[in-house]
Structures are given as C-alpha cells and as structure tokens.
Amino acid sequence: MSCCVPFCPYKGIKSSTFSIPKNTSLKVEWERILGTSSKVSSRVCQNHFKHDDINTWECGQGDNKFTNLEFNVSPKYNKITTVISNIENDHCCIANNNKRLKRHNIDRNVFEESSTKRIEMSELGYSLSNMQIETYENIEGLIRTFDKINICQGSMSSNLSDINLSYGHQKIETFEVIKHLKCSTIVTDDESGERNVRIWCKCLDYSIKHKKLREKNNKKTRIFFSSKKKKKLQLLNKAKHLLKKKCSRATSRMVNLQTSLNNNKEEMRKMSESKIEELLKSNNIPQCQSDLIYEILKASKIKNCKQRYSDNWMLLCMLLQISGYRFLRDNNILPLPCINTIIRFRFPKFLIPKSDSDLRTLIPNSDSEFRLPNSDSEFRNQITISDIRTLIPNSEFR
C-alpha cells in the first residue's frame, strides 16, 4: 500500500509501511507532523521515521525481513517541496544555412471540394440554355455575376435531431438546410444583413427557437397561422369562450338551485303538521290540493317503496283525467299510486273487474263510457262521484 503523505517523493520506491496508531493523542500528533488527515486504512512509509525507531528482524533462511516500530514513536519532520514548474535547458542548434526558401509557382489544375452550400441554378432563375457562352470572357462574366449575388443561407441545418415536424408546415429542406416556403433564395440589397438571410427565414428561425425553448420548459408549442386562418381561429376561440361562460353560468345556477332545494328540504323537515295546516287555512287552499300536499309530505318521509296511500288520495287518483298520468308517476312529480293499485282499491277479490262490461255492471249509473285501464294505458275517462259512492257506499270521501 502506498504512503498517505501528500507529495511524498518515495511513493515509487519499494519500502515498508506502517499503520496509523489507534491511540487518539498519538494519532493527532502524527497528523500534525505529517500535515494530513488519516483514516483507519492509511499507511505511512518508513522514510518518514528515523532509522533507530524501526526494528528489523529476519525469519528463517533467506532474506525474509520484517519491520515494526518502537512503542509511541512519532514520525520525523520532512521538508516536502511542491513542484511549480519544471525548467530544463534545451539544446539549441545553430543553422548552418541562412538562405531563405524560394517560392515556386507551378501551373496545373487543382481540384478542391467546395465547403459552401450548393445552390442549383434553377433556384436562381438562370438556365445555361438561355445564355450565350462562346468565349472565356463570357464564362468569367458569368462567374462574376454569380459572385455578386447574395444567396439566402436558410434558417438552420436540417441535420439537427431536435427539429420536430410539429414546428409547422411552413418549412422545407433544401440541400440539408431548412428554409421558409416563401423564401426566394436570392437576397436583395435592402434585405441583406450579417447572415445574408431573408426575412422569411429569419421568422422561421425565431419560431423554431422559441418552440424548442417552450418544449424544453414543458410548455405547449404555438402554431403560427396565416391571416385568413388566424381569423377563423379567433372566431373559434371566441365561440369557445362564450360556450365556456355559458357552461359556467349554468353550473353556478345549478349549484344555487341545489343549495336552495336543500334549504327548503331542511325547512320542511323541521315544519310540524299543525304549522302546515295553519298555512293551508291562511292561504285558503282547497281540500283536494291540501290532500295532495299532505300526501307529498307523507311520501317524502317514507323511504319504503311499498308505501300505503290514504283513502281520500286513492279516490282522487281514480277521478283524475290526465293523459300524462304515467309520466307524472315515473318522474315522481306527484306521489301517484300504480294503476293496478287503484283497481284493487277496496274491491273484493271476487269483484275485481276483468273487462269493461264487468266494470259497467259494478257501476250501473255511469253515463260516460269507461275503459278499464291496463298497465300500458293512462286514465282518459272520468268516474263521477255518484259512481264512486255507489261502488263504495261506506267511503268517507269528501
């Protein structure tokens, strides 16, 4: 194990090492002398101790030597220098020939691969078939003309992996360069700048950078529309905003109505029958409507589906001539009994009518035509009070 003393010049030399003492005071003294903190597994080489502090003994035959320290021995102070720079005297050579090298120009064809962007002539609006190239001067003039033209460098390279298709459909890839659809490739004098980029490609560059930044911050990316599509988008957003406000008002109204209904239920639950009777008498409510109110309150307090109806209410239900009887009963608008329950009301089993003729025999004074209701029909006819009294002479009907 190597020595734990920093900048120890003997780390490359094979030597014996000794562990840190377990005594706390002696350990602190070692750390103070060596100028470093130690661990349980730290070792110090023998070069940091005096020769008299080390005991060496041999075991068996050969050169098997073992070393150990004397009791309560401290290491010696060693001046360890830190190397700041290594300055060496390099060998300098004197030139034998002081003549300068001559430059030789050789006329020959040199082929060099272009490192700039490749632009097709069709993109610039030029065609070699329309040009008259007859002499070398024509070729030189054509080259000078192309040299003076400022070409749009595009927005950015298409080789970037983080350019998604969601950045819009207004971009095209031309020779590994992303350009705007409306870019005309040639930059005019009034549009030329530091990068030789047209205004459309600048807008595309701005849009892509901001969308990349929004994606990096986990935000939604905006899509830029044309003026015509932007108007449609504004109309849709306006309709969405109006519908949202309408739904908000409806939700608020539903909450208010539900709160009011719960308050009325709580108030009716605390109201006694005597108070209800006083309210009905003070408002001059008819007897049939009073029976309806009592029946509604009674039905609201009974949770059993097999509830029993009062006689007066059953007789009133028999006198009903309502086409929407089943609708009122199915939607719990009124506590109406089932049609079969009305038919079975106070009829002996042997007197339950099975047809219209049987019912007419039970009601001989019936002037109007009566049709026996079934489970799929509603009451459309009216039974007179005299018929009910004839049918049920002991009725306490008022």
From TrEMBL:
Coiled coil segments of this chain: 254-282
Domain THAP-type: 1-78
Domain of life: Eukaryota
Chain ranges passing through the membrane: none
InterPro entries xref list: THAP_Znf, THAP_Znf_sf
Keywords: Coiled coil, DNA-binding, Metal-binding, Zinc, Zinc-finger
Gene3D superfamilies on file: THAP domain
Matches recorded under SMART domains: THAP
A Pfam family hit: THAP
PROSITE patterns: ZF_THAP
MF GO annotations: DNA binding; zinc ion binding
Full protein name: THAP domain-containing protein 9
